[in-house]
């Protein structure tokens, strides 16, 4: 049985490339895909390739209506309900990371959210070879424009997760989860289920979208 991702790959090949397909299905109130992705990034969330575009549209509209708790609830429920499937897919795509991914998911399932958050953040960084948090100005060299949808370019920009920690308190972002603060021990209050799922969403995003279609 083909997975959702495999079906999407087939559709992409038959319809002129990923950007054209994404543009058609990701119709969110005439706003650009990039704008809506950026909105989610500012709340600390990344998009999984398994999320239905209609559901993402619903989340965006709730955020625009200042119903952020309801919007986050949808995202939280998505990752909770699909946790096993996401774990299996990440391990399938990154078998060399099997042991650390299993430990991260086990920690999450055991409510050890400090551990799971930092592990998911590290693996998200590792999947993209460290380029999301280091030398982001040079990320263009590694982004294959034919294999990545346009919104992956947002990895080059500051967001709540990857903005330098010195800027986070004065920033416009709506999420306090910050990779630098977590990984370098500056943050001591990030151990929540929501933050763990946000960190997991980063793993999904880079696994599903960053140079995902080169195989």
Structural class: mainly alpha
How much of the polypeptide forms β-strand, as a percent range? under 5%
DSSP helix count? 11
Total strands = 0
Radius of gyration: 16 Å
Spans where pLDDT lies below 50 across 5 or more residues: 12-21, 23-31
Determine the fraction of residues in helical runs and give it as a percent range: 55-70%
Structural domains: how many: 1
Order of helices and strands: HHHHHHHHHHH
Characterize the biggest β-sheet. Answer: none
Principal-axis shape equals globular
Mean pLDDT metric: 80
Amino- and carboxy-terminal Cα gap: 19 Å
Protein name: RiboL-PSP-HEPN domain-containing protein
Describe the protein.
The protein is 55% helix and 0% strand. The chain is mostly helical. The protein has one domain.
Please outline what is shown here.
With 215 residues, the chain is mostly helical. Helices cover 55% and strands 0% of the residues.
Give the helices and strands, then pairings.
Blueprint: H1 4-14, H2 18-25, H3 33-42, H4 53-64, H5 68-81, H6 83-93, H7 98-109, H8 113-127, H9 165-168, H10 179-183, H11 193-209
Helix pairs in contact: 4-5, 6-7, 7-8, 8-11
List keywords for this structure.
single chain; 215 residues; 0% strand; globular; 11 helices; mainly alpha
